[in-house]
UniProtKB/TrEMBL annotation:
InterPro entries: B4GAT1. GO terms for cellular component: Golgi membrane. Its cofactor is Mn(2+). One of its GO terms (molecular function) is glucuronosyltransferase activity. It comes from the Eukaryota. It catalyses: 3-O-[beta-D-Xyl-(1->4)-Rib-ol-P-Rib-ol-P-3-beta-D-GalNAc-(1->3)-beta-D-GlcNAc-(1->4)-(O-6-P-alpha-D-Man)]-Thr-[protein] + UDP-alpha-D-glucuronate = 3-O-[beta-D-GlcA-(1->3)-beta-D-Xyl-(1->4)-Rib-ol-P-Rib-ol-P-3-beta-D-GalNAc-(1->3)-beta-D-GlcNAc-(1->4)-(O-6-P-alpha-D-Man)]-Thr-[protein] + UDP + H(+). This is Beta-1,4-glucuronyltransferase 1. It is found in: Golgi apparatus membrane. Belongs to the glycosyltransferase 49 family. The keyword Phosphoprotein does not apply. It comes from Alectorobius mimon. It is a single-pass type II membrane protein.
Length: 139
């Protein structure tokens, strides 16, 4: 699940193509991608190291919606993610503990509850889908 204004990390598609086939089958697994936001006039970081060097500066990068809706990415536990080693190969790092209001960006199976397009406008869109996924047993 992504959003129209989300720009993935350079090379993420290729890294996912290498990662997903190596995983044991898991019909209810969602792999969360940490999300950040930055100003348009700042170059997109090419690595985790570069992102972390510019993290926290309001003019550079911060956790996605950290100001607008803090719960949005809270369960991703960005502080824990920041402490992980920066590796080329993707691998599961830890399990995010669902909290109400969580709007994660993830890679998952086609069986995940559908995004409800009837929610028009801003708010309670992806977090409803994330809640439904949690209630259906996805992790």
């Amino acid at each position: 699940m992504t959003d129209v204004d989300l720009m993935p990390q350079y090379g993420l598609f290729e890294r996912l193509r290498g990662f997903l086939p190596k995983r044991p089958p898991c019909e209810k697994c969602l792999y969360v991608v940490p999300a950040f936001e930055g100003s348009l006039d700042v170059a997109h970081p090419r690595s985790k190291k570069e992102l972390l060097q510019r993290f926290g500066n309001k003019k550079h990068f911060r956790v996605y919606h950290a100001v607008a809706f803090r719960k949005n990415q809270g369960a991703t536990n960005i502080n824990r993610w920041k402490r992980l080693p920066d590796e080329d190969e993707l691998k599961p790092a830890y399990e995010a503990n669902f909290t109400f209001g969580y709007e994660c960006f993830y890679v998952g199976p086609h069986t995940v509850p559908r995004y409800r397009e009837r929610f028009i406008g801003y708010g309670f869109t992806r977090n409803v889908q994330t809640l439904e996924s949690h209630l259906a047993g996805y992790k």
